[in-house]
Amino acid sequence: MTLTTSKLTRAAGVSAALSGLLYITVQFIHPAETVASIVTPAWAVVAWMTVAFGVLGLIGITGVYLRQVTQSGLLGLIGFLIFGTFLLTAAAFSFVEALVLPAIVKDAPQVVEDILGIFSGAPADGSLGALEALSTFAFGAYLTGGLVFGLSIFRTRVVSGWAGILLAAGSVSTLLVPLLPHTVGRFVAVPVGLALIWLGYSLWADRRGPVTVSPPGSAARLDRAAAE
Questions:
Q1: What is the per-residue pLDDT across 104-148, written as a single tens digit (0 to 9) for each?
Q2: Residue 159: strand, helix, or coil
Q3: Which of 38, 48, 158, 167 lies 20 to 30 A from 77 at CA?
Q4: What is the 3-class SS of 110-155, one letter each residue?
Q5: Which residues cross the membrane (predicted)?
């Protein structure tokens, strides 16, 4: 099979859509974040689904960014890097949830409970050091990255601009999470999942060739050359 830019772009679109679907599904089936849940099959399934969400999401937004790289400028680059950092963080933390926590839960249940508390809203007690700031870091990357990247998508309109607005609005809506119970607050993620599905479809359905922007004055030079 010959790899082409078009095929890679469509593959990135599929990855973004799958990532969004996984992100939404996880919110509905996530087991209680307790020590007892760590060794259950449901925990393993959700943890690996979240790893896949992060990896596929990173592939997907990379495709979106590269499709609009010329038009999005610095704003698009900043949004891509920050939101990509959130996706990497989600994948890495879920990898720990899938492989590390079940292996240590018998010998160190308190450590497992402290790690689970990073994202479940448990008050920090200093036992995990700098790791306890991970939720704040991820929250900031999610909010800022989604907002900036979404606005860059809307501004360039290379893929669906309204999907970019949904991504930006969904990211900002995470400000509501501290005001809601943890089990309810997780559903604030649904708009971002829908935005990823929409962006993925828009990227997959895009049949245009690479968009280029002519340097200032180039059109006038071409006109003069044609006249001569």
A1: 999 999 889 989 888 876 665 667 777 888 889 999 999 999 999
A2: coil
A3: 48
A4: HHHHHHHHHHHCCCCCCCCHHHHHHHHHHHHHHHHHHHHHHHHHHH
A5: 12-30, 42-66, 73-96, 133-154, 161-180, 186-204
Which one-letter amino acid corresponds to residue 155? R
Burial 89-99 (b: 16+ CB within 10 A, else e): bbbebbbebbe
Question: In this structure, what token pair is assigned to residue 104?
Answer: 């240590």
Looking at every residue in the chain, the average pLDDT score rounds to 88
Q: Which domain holds residue 200?
A: 5-227
DSSP state of 97: I
pTM of the model: 0.85
Sign of the dihedral defined by the CA atoms of residues 61, 62, 68, 73, in that order: positive
The contacts of residue 94 (CB under 8 Å, 6+ apart) are 47, 48, 50, 51, 53, 54
pLDDT, tens digit (0-9, with 9 covering 90-100), for 88-107 = 999 999 999 999 999 999 99
Using alpha carbons only, give the angle 146, 124, 43 rounded to the nearest 5 degrees.
Answer: 65
Structure tokens at 61: 């937004």
